[in-house]
Amino acid sequence: MGNSLGPLLANIYMAHLEETYMHGCLHSPDHYWRCVDDTFCLFRDKEDVAKFHDFINNLHPSIKFDREEEEDGQLNFLDTIIRRTDDTFPTISTRVKPQDKGLLYNFSSFVPDKTKTSLISTLVYRAYKIASNMNIFHVDVTTLKKKLKLNGFPVHLIDKCIGAVLGKHHANITRPSTTDVPRKEINITLPYLGPVSHLLKRRLQRLVHRFYPSVELNFIYRRGFRIANMFNYKDKFPLSCRSMVVYYTQCKNCGPSEAYIGKTVNTVYERFFASGTGHLSATNKNSALIDHMVKTNDPKCDFVFDDVKILDSGSYDEQIRFIESILLKYDKQNLNTCERSIELQLV
Q1: What H or E segment, with its residue span, contains residue 84?
Q2: Which of 140, 155, 168, 204 has the fewest CB atoms inside 10 Å of its own CB, making it the most exposed?
Q3: What is the pLDDT of residue 173?
Protein backbone atom coordinates (compact mmCIF):
# COMPACT_ATOMS: atom_id res chain seq x y z
CA MET A 1 0.00 0.00 0.00
CA GLY A 2 2.91 2.34 0.59
CA ASN A 3 3.15 5.31 2.92
CA SER A 4 -0.14 7.05 3.74
CA LEU A 5 1.54 10.40 3.07
CA GLY A 6 2.40 9.33 -0.49
CA PRO A 7 -0.70 10.73 -2.26
CA LEU A 8 -0.52 13.98 -0.26
CA LEU A 9 3.16 14.56 -1.05
CA ALA A 10 2.60 13.64 -4.70
CA ASN A 11 -0.23 16.16 -4.90
CA ILE A 12 1.93 18.89 -3.33
CA TYR A 13 4.79 18.21 -5.73
CA MET A 14 2.53 18.14 -8.77
CA ALA A 15 1.04 21.49 -7.70
CA HIS A 16 4.58 22.87 -7.41
CA LEU A 17 5.46 21.73 -10.93
CA GLU A 18 2.24 23.19 -12.33
CA GLU A 19 2.79 26.58 -10.70
CA THR A 20 6.46 26.69 -11.72
CA TYR A 21 6.48 25.40 -15.29
CA MET A 22 2.93 25.26 -16.67
CA HIS A 23 2.74 28.95 -17.56
CA GLY A 24 5.86 28.69 -19.70
CA CYS A 25 4.44 26.06 -22.05
CA LEU A 26 3.36 27.33 -25.46
CA HIS A 27 0.99 24.39 -25.96
CA SER A 28 -0.91 24.51 -22.66
CA PRO A 29 -4.59 23.48 -22.75
CA ASP A 30 -7.36 26.03 -22.50
CA HIS A 31 -8.69 24.20 -19.44
CA TYR A 32 -6.71 21.96 -17.09
CA TRP A 33 -8.13 19.95 -14.18
CA ARG A 34 -6.18 17.45 -12.08
CA CYS A 35 -7.24 14.91 -9.42
CA VAL A 36 -4.01 13.61 -7.81
CA ASP A 37 -2.41 11.96 -10.87
CA ASP A 38 -5.35 12.07 -13.31
CA THR A 39 -5.75 15.17 -15.46
CA PHE A 40 -8.49 16.34 -17.79
CA CYS A 41 -7.50 18.84 -20.47
CA LEU A 42 -9.34 20.74 -23.18
CA PHE A 43 -7.39 21.85 -26.28
CA ARG A 44 -8.37 23.96 -29.27
CA ASP A 45 -5.87 22.25 -31.60
CA LYS A 46 -5.35 18.48 -31.68
CA GLU A 47 -1.65 18.94 -32.52
CA ASP A 48 -1.11 20.61 -29.16
CA VAL A 49 -2.13 17.40 -27.35
CA ALA A 50 1.03 15.46 -28.29
CA LYS A 51 3.29 18.48 -27.74
CA PHE A 52 1.86 19.18 -24.28
CA HIS A 53 2.12 15.47 -23.42
CA ASP A 54 5.83 15.52 -24.27
CA PHE A 55 6.27 18.71 -22.27
CA ILE A 56 4.84 17.39 -18.98
CA ASN A 57 6.67 14.06 -19.35
CA ASN A 58 9.98 15.92 -19.54
CA LEU A 59 9.46 17.96 -16.37
CA HIS A 60 10.86 15.23 -14.11
CA PRO A 61 12.31 11.76 -14.80
CA SER A 62 9.95 10.17 -12.25
CA ILE A 63 6.78 11.66 -13.76
CA LYS A 64 5.40 9.89 -16.80
CA PHE A 65 1.84 10.44 -18.02
CA ASP A 66 -0.13 8.20 -20.35
CA ARG A 67 -2.72 9.88 -22.49
CA GLU A 68 -6.18 8.95 -23.66
CA GLU A 69 -8.01 10.94 -26.30
CA GLU A 70 -11.72 11.10 -26.99
CA GLU A 71 -13.25 8.47 -29.26
CA ASP A 72 -16.63 8.89 -30.94
CA GLY A 73 -17.15 12.14 -29.08
CA GLN A 74 -16.70 10.71 -25.58
CA LEU A 75 -13.92 10.25 -23.03
CA ASN A 76 -13.69 8.23 -19.82
CA PHE A 77 -12.33 10.15 -16.83
CA LEU A 78 -12.20 8.58 -13.39
CA ASP A 79 -15.70 7.18 -12.71
CA THR A 80 -17.44 9.31 -15.32
CA ILE A 81 -18.17 9.34 -19.06
CA ILE A 82 -17.95 12.77 -20.65
CA ARG A 83 -19.76 13.11 -24.00
CA ARG A 84 -19.46 15.91 -26.51
CA THR A 85 -22.79 17.46 -27.52
CA ASP A 86 -24.01 20.22 -29.78
CA ASP A 87 -24.66 22.35 -26.72
CA THR A 88 -22.09 24.50 -24.99
CA PHE A 89 -21.62 22.02 -22.15
CA PRO A 90 -20.91 18.28 -22.49
CA THR A 91 -22.99 15.65 -20.72
CA ILE A 92 -21.57 13.65 -17.81
CA SER A 93 -22.79 10.26 -16.64
CA THR A 94 -21.64 7.52 -14.27
CA ARG A 95 -19.12 5.12 -15.76
CA VAL A 96 -19.40 1.38 -15.18
CA LYS A 97 -15.98 -0.15 -15.70
CA PRO A 98 -15.63 -3.34 -17.80
CA GLN A 99 -14.18 -5.15 -14.76
CA ASP A 100 -17.33 -4.47 -12.74
CA LYS A 101 -19.13 -7.76 -11.96
CA GLY A 102 -22.15 -6.09 -10.39
CA LEU A 103 -21.35 -7.53 -6.98
CA LEU A 104 -22.30 -5.76 -3.75
CA TYR A 105 -22.86 -7.39 -0.38
CA ASN A 106 -26.09 -9.33 -0.48
CA PHE A 107 -29.21 -7.99 1.21
CA SER A 108 -29.29 -11.10 3.40
CA SER A 109 -25.78 -10.38 4.68
CA PHE A 110 -25.37 -10.25 8.45
CA VAL A 111 -24.94 -6.47 8.67
CA PRO A 112 -27.08 -3.72 10.28
CA ASP A 113 -30.05 -2.41 8.29
CA LYS A 114 -28.53 1.08 8.46
CA THR A 115 -25.51 -0.19 6.55
CA LYS A 116 -27.75 -1.55 3.78
CA THR A 117 -29.76 1.66 3.39
CA SER A 118 -26.56 3.72 3.54
CA LEU A 119 -25.15 1.69 0.65
CA ILE A 120 -28.19 2.47 -1.52
CA SER A 121 -28.24 6.14 -0.56
CA THR A 122 -24.51 6.55 -1.21
CA LEU A 123 -24.70 5.01 -4.69
CA VAL A 124 -27.80 7.05 -5.57
CA TYR A 125 -26.22 10.28 -4.32
CA ARG A 126 -23.07 9.51 -6.31
CA ALA A 127 -25.12 9.07 -9.49
CA TYR A 128 -27.05 12.28 -8.72
CA LYS A 129 -23.90 14.36 -8.25
CA ILE A 130 -22.24 13.01 -11.40
CA ALA A 131 -25.21 13.24 -13.78
CA SER A 132 -25.30 16.52 -15.68
CA ASN A 133 -29.11 16.42 -16.03
CA MET A 134 -32.07 14.46 -14.67
CA ASN A 135 -32.50 12.41 -17.85
CA ILE A 136 -29.00 11.00 -17.44
CA PHE A 137 -29.65 10.47 -13.73
CA HIS A 138 -32.76 8.44 -14.57
CA VAL A 139 -30.74 6.17 -16.88
CA ASP A 140 -27.93 5.75 -14.34
CA VAL A 141 -30.27 5.06 -11.43
CA THR A 142 -32.20 2.50 -13.49
CA THR A 143 -28.95 0.63 -14.10
CA LEU A 144 -28.16 0.90 -10.39
CA LYS A 145 -31.59 -0.51 -9.44
CA LYS A 146 -30.95 -3.59 -11.60
CA LYS A 147 -27.61 -4.16 -9.88
CA LEU A 148 -29.16 -3.79 -6.42
CA LYS A 149 -32.03 -6.17 -7.25
CA LEU A 150 -29.52 -8.79 -8.44
CA ASN A 151 -27.94 -8.55 -4.99
CA GLY A 152 -31.25 -9.22 -3.26
CA PHE A 153 -32.30 -5.68 -2.34
CA PRO A 154 -36.11 -5.24 -2.39
CA VAL A 155 -37.55 -2.71 -4.83
CA HIS A 156 -39.58 -0.85 -2.18
CA LEU A 157 -36.43 -0.20 -0.12
CA ILE A 158 -34.49 0.99 -3.19
CA ASP A 159 -37.31 3.38 -4.16
CA LYS A 160 -37.57 4.66 -0.60
CA CYS A 161 -33.84 5.50 -0.49
CA ILE A 162 -33.95 7.13 -3.94
CA GLY A 163 -36.87 9.27 -2.81
CA ALA A 164 -35.05 10.28 0.37
CA VAL A 165 -31.93 11.34 -1.56
CA LEU A 166 -33.89 13.33 -4.14
CA GLY A 167 -36.07 14.90 -1.47
CA LYS A 168 -33.03 16.08 0.47
CA HIS A 169 -30.74 17.21 -2.36
CA HIS A 170 -33.00 17.93 -5.35
CA ALA A 171 -36.29 19.10 -3.88
CA ASN A 172 -34.50 20.51 -0.81
CA ILE A 173 -37.10 19.09 1.55
CA THR A 174 -36.09 19.31 5.22
CA ARG A 175 -37.86 17.63 8.10
CA PRO A 176 -39.32 20.16 10.53
CA SER A 177 -37.97 20.05 14.03
CA THR A 178 -40.42 18.70 16.63
CA THR A 179 -38.81 20.63 19.49
CA ASP A 180 -37.27 24.02 20.06
CA VAL A 181 -34.85 22.66 22.65
CA PRO A 182 -31.51 21.49 21.21
CA ARG A 183 -31.12 17.77 21.74
CA LYS A 184 -27.95 16.30 23.14
CA GLU A 185 -26.59 13.47 21.03
CA ILE A 186 -25.17 10.40 22.76
CA ASN A 187 -23.47 7.65 20.76
CA ILE A 188 -23.43 4.04 21.94
CA THR A 189 -21.25 1.38 20.33
CA LEU A 190 -22.57 -2.19 20.42
CA PRO A 191 -21.63 -5.46 18.73
CA TYR A 192 -24.07 -6.39 15.95
CA LEU A 193 -25.99 -9.55 16.88
CA GLY A 194 -28.82 -9.45 14.34
CA PRO A 195 -32.48 -9.08 15.47
CA VAL A 196 -31.42 -8.93 19.11
CA SER A 197 -29.51 -5.71 18.41
CA HIS A 198 -32.55 -4.10 16.75
CA LEU A 199 -34.78 -5.09 19.66
CA LEU A 200 -32.32 -3.67 22.18
CA LYS A 201 -32.06 -0.45 20.16
CA ARG A 202 -35.84 0.09 20.12
CA ARG A 203 -36.22 -0.56 23.85
CA LEU A 204 -33.37 1.75 24.82
CA GLN A 205 -34.68 4.51 22.56
CA ARG A 206 -38.15 4.24 24.14
CA LEU A 207 -36.71 4.47 27.65
CA VAL A 208 -34.47 7.42 26.82
CA HIS A 209 -37.30 9.25 25.01
CA ARG A 210 -39.61 8.67 27.98
CA PHE A 211 -37.30 9.86 30.76
CA TYR A 212 -34.84 12.11 28.86
CA PRO A 213 -36.70 13.62 25.88
CA SER A 214 -33.88 16.13 25.27
CA VAL A 215 -31.42 13.31 24.51
CA GLU A 216 -31.00 11.74 21.07
CA LEU A 217 -29.55 8.26 21.28
CA ASN A 218 -27.45 7.05 18.32
CA PHE A 219 -26.28 3.48 17.90
CA ILE A 220 -23.05 2.46 16.19
CA TYR A 221 -22.67 -1.22 15.47
CA ARG A 222 -19.31 -2.92 15.24
CA ARG A 223 -18.51 -6.37 13.99
CA GLY A 224 -19.21 -9.14 16.42
CA PHE A 225 -17.46 -12.48 16.62
CA ARG A 226 -16.53 -13.88 13.22
CA ILE A 227 -15.31 -17.26 12.03
CA ALA A 228 -12.02 -15.63 11.08
CA ASN A 229 -11.41 -14.93 14.79
CA MET A 230 -11.01 -18.67 15.33
CA PHE A 231 -8.11 -19.03 12.91
CA ASN A 232 -4.69 -17.49 12.56
CA TYR A 233 -4.97 -16.87 8.83
CA LYS A 234 -1.70 -14.91 8.57
CA ASP A 235 1.57 -16.75 8.20
CA LYS A 236 4.06 -16.25 11.00
CA PHE A 237 6.93 -13.99 9.95
CA PRO A 238 10.16 -16.07 9.88
CA LEU A 239 12.82 -15.21 12.44
CA SER A 240 15.48 -14.53 9.80
CA CYS A 241 13.30 -11.81 8.21
CA ARG A 242 12.39 -9.96 11.42
CA SER A 243 13.86 -6.47 11.72
CA MET A 244 13.78 -3.53 14.15
CA VAL A 245 13.85 -5.91 17.13
CA VAL A 246 15.62 -6.55 20.45
CA TYR A 247 16.81 -10.17 20.68
CA TYR A 248 18.29 -12.64 23.17
CA THR A 249 20.66 -15.52 22.51
CA GLN A 250 22.54 -17.87 24.80
CA CYS A 251 25.25 -20.49 24.52
CA LYS A 252 23.87 -23.93 23.73
CA ASN A 253 26.20 -25.55 26.27
CA CYS A 254 26.55 -22.89 29.00
CA GLY A 255 22.95 -21.78 29.00
CA PRO A 256 21.72 -18.48 30.57
CA SER A 257 25.09 -17.96 32.31
CA GLU A 258 26.59 -16.99 28.95
CA ALA A 259 23.94 -14.96 27.12
CA TYR A 260 23.70 -11.81 25.07
CA ILE A 261 21.04 -9.13 24.49
CA GLY A 262 21.22 -6.99 21.36
CA LYS A 263 19.18 -4.94 18.92
CA THR A 264 19.13 -4.61 15.16
CA VAL A 265 17.45 -2.35 12.64
CA ASN A 266 18.32 -4.82 9.87
CA THR A 267 17.07 -8.40 9.70
CA VAL A 268 18.11 -10.78 12.46
CA TYR A 269 19.84 -12.96 9.86
CA GLU A 270 22.03 -10.05 8.77
CA ARG A 271 22.90 -9.24 12.39
CA PHE A 272 24.22 -12.76 12.91
CA PHE A 273 25.75 -13.65 9.55
CA ALA A 274 26.62 -10.41 7.70
CA SER A 275 30.24 -10.51 6.53
CA GLY A 276 32.53 -8.57 8.88
CA THR A 277 29.79 -7.41 11.29
CA GLY A 278 27.63 -10.46 12.03
CA HIS A 279 27.82 -12.09 15.45
CA LEU A 280 28.71 -15.46 13.91
CA SER A 281 30.66 -14.17 10.91
CA ALA A 282 34.19 -15.65 10.74
CA THR A 283 35.54 -12.26 9.62
CA ASN A 284 34.13 -10.38 12.61
CA LYS A 285 36.98 -9.69 15.05
CA ASN A 286 34.82 -7.94 17.67
CA SER A 287 32.12 -10.55 18.26
CA ALA A 288 31.40 -11.37 21.90
CA LEU A 289 29.80 -14.64 20.82
CA ILE A 290 32.83 -15.82 18.82
CA ASP A 291 35.18 -14.69 21.62
CA HIS A 292 33.26 -16.88 24.06
CA MET A 293 33.53 -19.95 21.82
CA VAL A 294 37.27 -19.33 21.32
CA LYS A 295 37.99 -18.86 25.05
CA THR A 296 36.13 -21.97 26.14
CA ASN A 297 37.61 -24.05 23.32
CA ASP A 298 34.70 -26.42 23.83
CA PRO A 299 33.13 -27.84 20.65
CA LYS A 300 29.80 -28.03 22.49
CA CYS A 301 29.74 -24.24 22.95
CA ASP A 302 27.72 -22.82 20.10
CA PHE A 303 25.02 -20.26 19.42
CA VAL A 304 22.13 -21.75 17.45
CA PHE A 305 20.41 -19.17 15.25
CA ASP A 306 17.01 -20.88 15.43
CA ASP A 307 17.10 -20.55 19.24
CA VAL A 308 17.29 -16.74 19.13
CA LYS A 309 14.38 -15.15 21.02
CA ILE A 310 12.72 -11.85 20.11
CA LEU A 311 12.24 -9.85 23.31
CA ASP A 312 10.56 -6.79 21.81
CA SER A 313 10.19 -4.79 18.62
CA GLY A 314 9.87 -1.15 17.63
CA SER A 315 9.13 1.21 14.78
CA TYR A 316 12.41 3.14 14.67
CA ASP A 317 16.02 2.86 15.83
CA GLU A 318 15.82 5.14 18.86
CA GLN A 319 12.87 3.22 20.25
CA ILE A 320 14.62 -0.16 20.22
CA ARG A 321 17.78 1.45 21.61
CA PHE A 322 15.74 2.59 24.62
CA ILE A 323 14.29 -0.91 25.01
CA GLU A 324 17.74 -2.51 24.79
CA SER A 325 19.21 -0.03 27.30
CA ILE A 326 16.44 -0.69 29.84
CA LEU A 327 16.93 -4.45 29.53
CA LEU A 328 20.69 -4.08 29.92
CA LYS A 329 20.24 -1.92 33.03
CA TYR A 330 18.02 -4.41 34.84
CA ASP A 331 19.02 -7.71 33.24
CA LYS A 332 22.50 -7.34 31.79
CA GLN A 333 23.96 -10.58 30.40
CA ASN A 334 27.54 -11.80 30.84
CA LEU A 335 28.47 -11.44 27.18
CA ASN A 336 27.29 -7.83 26.94
CA THR A 337 30.20 -5.40 27.25
CA CYS A 338 28.18 -2.16 26.89
CA GLU A 339 26.09 -0.78 29.73
CA ARG A 340 23.59 0.82 27.37
CA SER A 341 23.14 2.00 23.81
CA ILE A 342 21.45 5.30 24.71
CA GLU A 343 21.46 7.57 27.76
CA LEU A 344 18.61 6.82 30.17
CA GLN A 345 17.02 9.39 32.45
CA LEU A 346 15.64 7.09 35.15
CA VAL A 347 14.62 8.03 38.68
Answers
A1: none
A2: 155
A3: 67
